[in-house]
Fold:
Amino acid sequence: MRIRIEVEDKGLKSVYEFESQGLEGEALRDRIVGYLTAAGIFSQKEEVPKEGQPYDDGGTLMDRLEKFIRFEFPDAWFTSQELREKFETVIDDIKLSTVSTYLSRMNQEGLLERRGNRNNREYRLVQEGSEAGVAPGESYATKRKGTASRW
Structure:
């Protein structure tokens, strides 16, 4: 059995072909749906940043990353890879090493808390009421300007 699926969205055309010699019916359908789901065909469209979103006003890359984290991951644990993928989907390309460096600096300054070992590290904004961190209403950039930087 051979199945061809064409998807066209705003001028972008994708073609998926599936050929099976052993699978039929439900099993084939489940495999195809699983593949298309993993490829993002059925997922919600990522929101394109609009004028006025918190991370759309320039500044240094560090400032934009901070604003992006505050908007996209306000109270969730995330990995550097997850942040990179979301940042690239919404804003611009960025190297994973750059993301990791900035996350480490934000952790050292008290903006982010960190858990896990080196291979499974996750970050989260320091929650209000924590002793360390950035005070509500104070941005990381403001705090950074008030401290001597080693970098």
